[in-house]
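Now read the record:
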Amino acid sequence: MSPNRCIHVLVAVVAILTGAAPAVAQPVLTIEGSCPGALRAQVTGARPGRSLLLLFAPDAGSTRLPLFHWCGGVTLGLDWHGLQIVSGAIADENGVAVMEGQVGSRACGGYLQTLNNPDGGCEISNVVQIP
């Protein structure tokens, strides 16, 4: 075995034993618009061709999805109370997804985050507050 191959195998073994995973860039969520009114949410850095959900909650927080959920164990940056799916999209070949819609006054000041479905690795985006 070549020295380079030995190093790659050793790094893989150390990663497995320590629980370290390769660094994966987190999808980035940005929003434009006003509340109440038209809102545009854009995700960049998602896995191309994979589906994702736009989640809303009145408050930021820390919600660990239960093990029986299809993304069980993932911790969202949203509070459990009032958590709901508000939209969905599929990332294009560049890892970009756009979701647009009308936002009512009850959503103003609330929080949004995206969650990729299992086919997208259950990745979560940053949390963004609705202006």
